[in-house]
Specification:
The chain is an alpha/beta fold. It is built from ten helices and nine strands. It is globular and about 60 Å long.
């Protein structure tokens, strides 16, 4: 049996995540009162296989009740019931923008601004985030990419297929992604930024792709990178690693790193579950 507890910031994509889990066969309950978690999970475990995959959304809508989740998780641990925690987050600016677009009210915004409500929510969820099995930042993620991430993480597949390779392109000027297992610096490749007609384009556009991939530096590095990663994947699987995060960085995260990351992802997708996130492409 597999139990997934979905939580995270309001506006970060929990509704989309729960729909994706339903698509891969999970029985889903949204806005579960925290104090019912252990009782519900125990009931599922005792259902004689009728509920083999269950997902629960427990979040700040429970307000002060959310603090009871810690005790409920302790009960599950004591009784030997296995579970996984999926935590969704996004930047303050992204969440504020999403609330403006939907005109919905943040669950903690009574008498305060949305930004203050987000700060309160981050504090409320901080301890749960620390113990989360999976953390997905949806700041620059399209809904379909979140859907791919969820399906890759929680669909029932073989060991190799269950290994999720998350490729993140980023700009060094904005800092390293904190959860990377491997980081590759592609700043040695020629930079489209210095070509005026290419500067405002991104690594998802034909002109940038052709510019980067036509260089000798890319061609040689690309072959060696793919060969190296394909060598490592079975080693990580043997060690029981379920999620491999590979960072590809250039100066701004808009051109070279995006092209290299896309190419690597396309190569690995032939035999692996591979998802991609361009963290800084819109900066």
């Amino acid at each position: 049996m597999r139990v997934v507890i979905v939580t995270g910031l309001s506006g970060a994509g929990k509704t989309r995540a729960i729909r994706s889990l339903e698509d891969v066969g999970y029985y889903c309950v949204d806005n579960m009162p925290p104090f019912l978690v252990s009782k519900f999970v125990e009931m599922c475990y005792n259902s004689q296989g009728k509920l083999p995959r269950v997902a629960l959304v427990v979040d700040a809508r429970g307000k002060e009740m959310f603090s009871e989740l810690k005790g409920e998780l302790k009960i599950l641990n004591e009784r030997g019931f296995e579970y996984e925690i999926l935590f969704l987050e996004a930047s303050d600016e992204t969440i504020i923008k999403r609330y403006k677009e939907t005109r919905r009210k943040h669950p903690l915004s009574a008498g305060v601004t949305v930004r203050d409500a987000i700060d309160s929510e981050r504090e409320l969820l901080a301890d749960t985030k620390k113990i989360a099995d999976y953390i997905i930042d949806t700041t620059n993620m399209k809904p379909e990419h979140l859907n791919e991430n969820i399906k890759s993480l929680f669909s029932e597949v073989s060991d190799r297929e269950n290994m999720v390779i998350n490729i993140v392109s980023f700009g060094f000027k904005y800092g390293l992604p904190l959860d990377c297992d491997l980081v590759f610096d592609v700043r040695f490749m020629r930079n489209p930024f210095y070509v005026e007609e290419l500067r405002e384009k991104t690594g998802l556009e034909k002109e940038i792709i052709e510019y980067v991939m036509s260089s000798d530096e890319f061609k040689e590095f690309n072959v060696k990178l793919i060969d190296f990663i394909e060598y490592l994947i079975p080693q990580y699987i043997e060690e029981g690693k379920g999620n491999l995060v590979i960072g590809i960085g250039c100066t701004g995260g808009k051109h070279r790193s995006v092209v290299v990351a896309e190419n690597l992802c396309n190569a690995l997708r032939k035999e692996n579950n591979c998802v991609i996130n361009h963290r800084d492409i819109d900066r």
